[in-house]
């Protein structure tokens, strides 16, 4: 183990590659040496033999021809073996040195990538690996660096989004809690507070508690749907879903004297009925709460071959077309400040997460003269109830 208590691998990648290449070179050298030794012996043995009993004079000494042939064969093999052993050692040593050196150069970008990855943290996510390690190479290491950089880009985006989300959620939750504490402190500090004052304080505390409860519920729903799939699904008629969701907000719409125009044609999709009703409910709630007194609301459902469409349009304040996409981010509201007391700014975020979980798409565009139009496309069903 090193000083930081991390386990050090017994063999590094560089050492394993060097050992493997050296062993391969040694094995090939042994095979070649054996073949050379055998070929030399066979070549000497293939020399035409003299008749048995023949004598050959060598350095003034008569030697039997068969003994001389055997001696020459063994001598030749011995020479080959000695020369081959020297060559074997040289080849193995050269292979080891070259492998160690070349492997170091080849793995240098990988070591730089590793060093960069070790330095990365949430606070230093701006640094990238590809530029340091791959050096623009169009090989496997370059592709690896580009892939890791793309992954880091996604992680940085996710971290930034999460950081903003947590900060906004903390701010939103702090507001009703601050209201509750202020009302309690002011009332408790008043020794002459009567029943009316206590009832007023209780009403304010109740409203703040309801707002905090709605925010927590919205956060839980967003966490359940964002980036996740849906559970058990069944065919759902969006027209019936819109009608059910409208029952929850129609009293507020009547109180604000909003005109309605609903063109609800039976339009079937497949999904989680509760989530689909939440989609319609959030769109209608936004259309009512961010409307103007005496304004209008339109809701349309339309079947199709591939997509079932739900469109909710409403009057309201002017919306900058450049900021429409931001309305789907958490804690963004149509034409009102983020600290407004109505709504949590999560309606369209939940709509987008639920629609994406069903494999659909959602878009929005400003209405001329003020207001917003939101269109949801969900996978349609064919006549036999199968998604198209």
UniProtKB/TrEMBL annotation:
A molecular function GO annotation: kinase activity
A Pfam family recorded for this sequence: HisKA
Keyword annotations of the record: Kinase, Membrane, Phosphoprotein, Transferase, Transmembrane, Transmembrane helix, Two-component regulatory system
Listed InterPro entries: HAMP_dom, HATPase_C_sf, HATPase_dom, His_kinase_dom, HisK_dim/P_dom, HisK_dim/P_sf, Sig_transdc_His_kin-like_C, TCS_sensor_his_kinase
Principal EC category: transferase
Compartment annotation: Cell membrane
Enzyme Commission (EC) number: 2.7.13.3
Domain Histidine kinase: 168-382
Transmembrane helix found in the keyword field: yes
Residue ranges of domain HAMP in the record: 104-160
Keyword Phosphoprotein assigned: yes
UniProt main location, coarse: membrane
Matches recorded under PANTHER family: SENSOR HISTIDINE KINASE TRCS, SENSOR HISTIDINE KINASE YKOH
The protein's name: histidine kinase
């Amino acid at each position: 183990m090193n000083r930081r208590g991390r386990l050090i691998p017994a063999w590094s990648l560089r050492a394993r590659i060097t050992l493997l290449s050296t062993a391969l070179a040694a094995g090939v050298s042994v095979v070649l040496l054996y073949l050379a030794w055998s070929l030399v012996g066979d070549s000497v043995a293939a020399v035409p033999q003299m008749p048995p009993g023949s004598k050959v004079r060598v350095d003034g000494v008569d030697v039997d021809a068969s003994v001389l042939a055997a001696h020459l064969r063994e001598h030749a093999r011995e020479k080959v073996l000695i020369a081959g052993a020297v060559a074997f050692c040289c080849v193995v040593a050269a292979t080891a040195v070259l492998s160690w050196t070349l492997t170091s150069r080849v793995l240098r970008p990988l070591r730089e990538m590793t060093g960069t990855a070790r330095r990365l943290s949430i606070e230093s996510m701006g640094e990238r690996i590809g530029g340091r390690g791959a050096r623009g190479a169009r090989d496997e290491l370059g592709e690896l660096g580009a892939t890791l950089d793309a992954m880091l880009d996604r992680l940085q985006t996710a971290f930034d989004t999460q950081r903003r989300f947590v900060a906004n959620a903390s701010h939103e939750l702090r507001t009703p809690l601050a209201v509750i504490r202020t009302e309690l402190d002011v009332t408790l500090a008043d020794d002459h507070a009567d029943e009316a004052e206590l009832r007023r304080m209780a009403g304010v505390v109740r409203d703040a508690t309801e707002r905090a409860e709605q925010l927590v519920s919205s956060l839980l729903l967003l966490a359940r749907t964002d980036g996740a799939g849906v559970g058990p699904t069944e065919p759902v008629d969006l027209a019936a879903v819109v009608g059910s969701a409208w029952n929850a907000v129609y009293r507020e719409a009547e109180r604000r004297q909003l005109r309605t125009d609903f063109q609800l044609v039976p339009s079937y999709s497949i999904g989680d009925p509760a989530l689909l009703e939440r989609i319609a409910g959030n769109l209608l709630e936004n259309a009512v709460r961010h409307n103007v007194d005496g304004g209008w609301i339109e809701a349309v459902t339309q079947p199709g071959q591939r997509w079932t469409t739900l469109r909710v349009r409403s009057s309201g304040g002017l919306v900058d077309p450049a900021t429409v996409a931001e309305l789907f981010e958490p804690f963004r509201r149509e034409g009102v400040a983020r600290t407004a007391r109505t709504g949590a700014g999560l309606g369209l975020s939940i709509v987008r997460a639920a629609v994406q979980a069903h494999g659909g798409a959602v878009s929005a565009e400003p209405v001329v003269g003020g207001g917003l139009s939101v269109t949801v496309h969900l996978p349609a069903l064919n006549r036999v109830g199968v998604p198209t």
